[in-house]
Amino acid sequence: MTQPPSQSKKISQTRALGSEYKTQKRDQRREKIINAAAAVFAEKGFHNSTLKNIADHLGVLPAALYHYVESKEAALIEVCRRSGEIFNQTMKDHLSDDRPVPEILRDAVRDHMQNNRRELVYSFAFRPQGLPDESVREMGLIAQEYQCLWESLFDRGMKAGDLASNTDPHMSAIAILAMMNGSVEYYSGKTEAEINKIANHFTDIILGAF
Fold first, then answer.
1. What 8-state DSSP symbol labels residue 189?
2. Which of 71, 86, 136, 138 has its CA 20 to 30 A from that of 204?
3. Quick check: 57 and 40 in contact, CB under 8 A?
4. Could you tell me if 94 and 104 are in contact, meaning their C-beta atoms sit under 8 angstroms apart?
5. Does the predicted model carry a pTM greater than 0.90?
């Protein structure tokens, strides 16, 4: 018997809602796994970590992970991708601010260093030799975009007169990134207040050069 149009529509809507719910649950589960992988990698290092470590962190059996991530390499790539995107979006938000560049710079340095505590970006995404070969190019592009965003900030400061007219945006971006990334092991275990103090000192060094 052919169902009335109204009944068919209700069935289709129910199926759609069910499918959407399943998708959301799957995404939430995958998010928890990726966050757990990030925590494990940060604690043990990528090469010393296993899927079992990630499963243990979640309190599940390793087999429960394979439906979401097929390997620890796949989990690492996703951690790096997401973390890199967070860094880039944070810088874009700073660039949309119309305050004087020195003020923005101070906040950008602070946010970079606070975010750096989160996971592995500077052990892997911004040091691509630590990544599986297939992901090196993608992570490199994310890192390149991030550097360009910093260059845009310095260029804006120079043109606005907030920084010296002989400021080299490219070299300035390299300098501040090298300063922050090169000291990540030093400040990664410190409190938020301690990191803010270090971030302010780094900013003073950079601004003192102009």
1. T
2. 86
3. yes
4. yes
5. no
pLDDT per residue as tens digits for the range 102-140 = 999 999 999 998 876 455 444 554 455 556 676 777 777
Which CA distances in Å does 5 have to 2, 13, 19?
9, 12, 21
Residue 199, burial from CB neighbour count under 10 angstroms (0-12, 13-18, 19+): buried
What confidence tens digit (pLDDT) does each residue in 160-206 have?
999 999 999 999 999 999 998 888 778 877 888 999 999 999 999 99
For the chain, the 3-state helix, strand and coil shares in percent, each to the nearest 5, are 75, 0, 25
Would you say domain 1-70 falls under CATH 1.10.10.60?
A: yes
CATH number of 80-210: 1.10.357.10
Rounded to 5°, the CA angle 150-152-157 comes to 100
Say how far apart CA 6 and CA 69 lie, in whole Å. 41
